[in-house]
Amino acid sequence: MTTEGTPAANTRSDNEQTLKGRSVARLAAVQALYQVEFGGGRPDDVVDEYLSHRLGAEIDGQRMADPDPDFFRALVRGGTGRQEELDALLKGSLSKSREPSRLDGILRSLLRAAAFELLARKEVPARVIISEYIDVAHGFFAGPEPGLVNGVLDNLARHLRPSEVA
Description:
Layout: H1 7-39, H2 43-53, E1 58-59, E2 62-63, H3 69-81, H4 83-93, H5 105-120, H6 126-140, H7 145-160
Antiparallel strand pairs: 1-2
Helix pairs in contact: 1-2, 1-3, 1-5, 2-3, 3-5, 4-5, 4-7, 5-6, 5-7, 6-7
């Protein structure tokens, strides 16, 4: 049995904070990727602006946890720096009638962030990535989009990480 303040309790709390920070970083990365694409800002400037001015934001009266800044920065840099590669991967995972360029901007930004994470962040299990981005999709869309995210990311995970997804 552990009590607050013991190493075991602190480790669990630190792990929970890391997970929350990564979840918030994913949401923030989707917003930042959208801002870079449609606002024309440089990725590092958008990240710096977000980290300087948007921390501690409230949603529905609740203060959001702070994003993991390194994870956030990596997602935005990867999503912008490898955009052509990511779009090619997404095109292969979308139905034949869909092109990444024709998707809603938020949906495209979300899929790019998720595709980058599946491609480059091997320390994060594929199922965690898929689940997290489905949750992000539910935050933006009330229609069929979360199902599309699930299908595209599952297909992409089978291609990029076949040993993880059976």
